[in-house]
């Protein structure tokens, strides 16, 4: 969690620098909510089903990798940013699907949240196929 705090803080600081340089508040909001919603999806999962087993260690390591990727590609390449954001949603969707399989009483909730996260993955994948993503934001 401490690492996540550092990663999110660095991302917000990088976005702040860009918005101060060019005044593009809309772009800031879009980037911010890519960070925010992915973190909220992880919080919605972890408040109910987090554990210290091997699965969750790998889950949170992959999530941290995805968050670091978001920051690394922020204001650099939209393709990398979209891939890393999609990875975050995919990781959380897999966790929800695991809950749906293993906990019958939580199956409806878990499938509902898994589907929403998979829809986010699909939207980011669709975005990758329909636009030229190699350009930096300034060049778009």
Give a short overview:
This protein has 140 residues and is an all-alpha fold. It contains five helices and no strands.
Helix and strand arrangement:
Layout: H1 2-22, H2 25-49, H3 54-73, H4 78-102, H5 107-130
General description of the model:
The chain is an all-alpha fold and 140 residues long. The chain is 82% helix and 0% strand. It has five helices and no strands. The protein has helices at 2-22, 25-49, 54-73, 78-102, 107-130. Helix 4 (78-102) runs antiparallel to helix 5 (107-130). The model has no long low-confidence stretch (mean pLDDT 87).
Please report the number of helical segments: 5
Principal-axis shape: globular
Q: State the helicity in percent bands.
A: over 70%
- Sheet-strand content, in percent, reads under 5%
Low-confidence stretches: none
Terminal CA distance reads: 34 Å
Number of strands: 0
Mean pLDDT: 87
User: What structural category do the secondary elements indicate?
Assistant: mainly alpha
Topology pattern, helix = H, strand = E: HHHHH
Largest sheet: none
Feature tags:
140 residues, mainly alpha, globular
């Amino acid at each position: 969690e401490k690492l996540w705090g550092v990663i999110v803080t660095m991302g917000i600081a990088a976005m702040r620098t860009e918005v101060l340089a060019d005044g593009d508040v809309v772009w800031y909001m879009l980037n911010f909510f890519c960070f925010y919603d992915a973190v909220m999806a992880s919080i919605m999962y972890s408040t109910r089903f987090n554990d210290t087993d091997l699965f969750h260690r790998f889950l949170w390591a992959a999530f941290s990798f995805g968050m670091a990727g978001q920051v690394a590609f922020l204001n650099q390449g939209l393709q990398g940013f979209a891939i890393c954001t999609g990875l975050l949603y995919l990781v959380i969707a897999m966790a929800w699907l695991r809950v749906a399989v293993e906990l019958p009483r939580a199956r409806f909730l878990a499938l509902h949240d898994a589907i929403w996260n998979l829809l986010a993955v699909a939207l980011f994948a669709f975005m990758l196929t329909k636009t030229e993503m190699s350009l930096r934001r300034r060049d778009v």
